């Protein structure tokens, strides 16, 4: 966990993430129920990932690209998690008793 936090903090610093924005969002997250907080952060990270992937794809013509590799890895996780969630929600809808 500390390794992940260090890697995120290092990348955030290199890319000029605004610390006040981090503090403000942390404060907002702390006021959310735990289950909603996880969904909110996952959704926000996935949305940012997709925006970065689309923008990078428009600019990248390299055959071997570490950025594309990282984006693919993130999109793989996002796609697997989202597909699972949709499938589970559909299964739940069709298994639910009709009232
Ligand atoms: Zn690329």
Structural class, from secondary structure content?
mainly alpha
The beta-strand count equals 0
Q: Between the first and last Cα atoms, what is the distance in angstroms?
A: 45 Å
Poorly predicted segments: none
Name the helicity range. over 70%
Bound small-molecule species:
zinc ion
Mean pLDDT: 93
The total of helices stands at 4
What gross morphology would you assign?
flat
Descriptive labels:
single chain, mainly alpha, binds zinc ion, 99 residues
Report on this model:
This protein is mainly alpha-helical and 99 residues long. The chain has a domain at 50-99. It is built from four helices and no strands. The chain has helices at residues 2-14, 19-30, 34-59, 66-95. α3 crosses α4. It is flat. The model has no long low-confidence stretch (mean pLDDT 93). Bound molecules: zinc ion. Zinc ion binds next to α4.
Summarize the structure.
It is built from 4 helices and no strands. The chain is mostly helical. The mean pLDDT is 93.
Break the fold down into its secondary structure elements and pairings:
Elements: H1 2-14, H2 19-30, H3 34-59, H4 66-95
Helix pairs in contact: 3-4
The structure holds zinc ion.
